[in-house]
Description:
This protein is an alpha/beta fold. The chain folds into two domains: 2-219, Rossmann fold (3-Layer(aba) Sandwich), CATH 3.40.50; 223-281, 2-Layer Sandwich (Alpha-Beta Plaits). The protein has ten helices and 14 strands. The protein has helices at residues 42-49, 71-77, 93-102, 109-118, 134-146, 164-179, 191-197, 215-220, 263-269, 284-294; strands spanning 2-12, 18-27, 31-35, 57-62, 65-66, 78-81, 152-156, 183-188, 200-205, 208-214, 224-230, 244-250, 253-258, 274-281. The strands form three sheets. Strands 6-7-8-3-9-10 form a six-stranded mixed sheet, with helices on both faces. Strands 2-1-4-5 form a four-stranded antiparallel sheet, with helices on one face. Strands 12-13-11-14 form a four-stranded antiparallel sheet, with no helix packed on it.
Amino acid sequence: MSAIETQGLTKTYGSGKGIQDVSLTVREGEMFGFLGPNGAGKTTTIRVLLDFLRPNAGWARVLGFDCQQHSLQVRELIGYLPGEIHLEERLTGSELLATLSSFRSGIEPRFRQELAERLGIAASLDRPIRSYSKGMKQKIAIVQALMHRPRLLILDEPTEGLDPLVQQTFFQLLAEARQDGCTIFMSSHVLGEVERNCDRVALIRSGRLLVTEEIQALKAKAKRMVAATLAETASPDAFTLPGVSATSLGEGRWTFVVEGDIDPLFKRLAAFTVKDVEITRSSLEDIFMRYYETERP
């Protein structure tokens, strides 16, 4: 069974915005990145999954349940972290978490306290939420999403407002949740955090999916740049190879852009005395920028 499955999911707002024909599958147990710039349709997709919005066409299922016909069952199984946090500021952190805990069964107060301690807000739980910084409110929202040990986490821009050290703790908590069998669906516009933590990623632009791919498969498609310094003079014809673009910089210095297998280039370089060589790979950002440039919705 898939954790999330959509087919032809469409939600339009009459102004050209929304999502069009979004079809994707998120496997149970994986961490799935939903990537795109602000306004691409990430939050709209999530709101349809949660039945906050009704689609104009298509369907969506979460853990086998239809998102519209069985929305209560869906919400019982998930932990949700919205992109915009709105909390009852008259309550203290402890009061808010206790109130939210009362809506669910089986929450362990000890685990809830452990989450607060690891995120560094345990000492502030007796203060009114109106006194919290943006980062502290984000941490409270993370605790409420995780505290009932959900089967599926849906996270909308989850690291917004978190400093780098807290981000490390947050992703460690996600790794532990996955070990317990949780599936994680995370929308983001931060390429680095998706590349480091996700198994697969979908790229959405202007409401349409451009690609859904394994992270490692995307990296394998990346171009590699090779800079080499040779002791001898070589002609450009020496490096006429499939998938290799060679540029001479003079004085034995060459740059090569390689698509695909790099082995033929190194076999050709072996015919020369190589004084220095450096290899770099395109980043995930470079790969996605090529999709943005070549794929038009």
